[in-house]
Design a protein that fits this description.
The chain is an alpha+beta fold. The chain contains four helices and seven strands; from the N terminus they run βααβββαβαββ. Strand 3 (58-68) and strand 4 (71-78) form a beta hairpin.
Length: 142
């Protein structure tokens, strides 16, 4: 299995991060940008935490958490050449970093790989919103 880790996005990696998001086939609505300027504006928001997904030292995607309507929501975008393990492992690591629960994710209704990945790590369908499905990782009892 390749070594997957999340790294804080630095200015030196913004170009590669934008390219990774642009190349991603995933359809997480909050990961769609009209261009580089809208990506940079999103990254610079104070409520957004952006990480690069590193796969054996190579940038293969972006994972992020942000505030949406008072809730914490995550997103993930990986390049088409990322390994099969990269998305799930990156999402696992992101949910560990984002301790707030409930934690939400919104994906396109037709993005089957994303639905499967979210279910594997404990997210459950919360509601449908048009062409999107909202998932939630509920709080756990200790």
């Amino acid at each position: 299995m390749p070594h997957i880790e999340l790294r804080a996005l630095t200015d030196d990696h913004r170009d590669a991060a934008f390219d990774a998001v642009s190349a991603s086939r995933s359809s997480w609505p909050r990961g769609v940008f009209e261009g580089r300027a809208s990506f940079d504006a999103w990254v610079d928001r104070p409520d957004v935490e952006v990480y690069t997904v590193s796969e054996d030292g190579r940038l293969s995607g972006v994972a992020a958490a942000m505030d949406v309507d008072g809730d914490r929501e995550i997103l993930l975008a990986v390049t088409p050449d990322a390994g099969d393990e990269a998305p799930t492992e990156a999402l696992r690591q992101l949910t560990v970093r984002e301790a707030e629960r409930p934690l939400y994710a919104c994906v396109s209704v037709d993005d089957e790989p994303a639905h499967d990945m979210l279910a594997r790590i404990g997210f459950v369908e919360h509601e449908r919103d048009g062409a999107d499905v909202v998932y939630v990782l509920p709080p756990t009892l200790e």
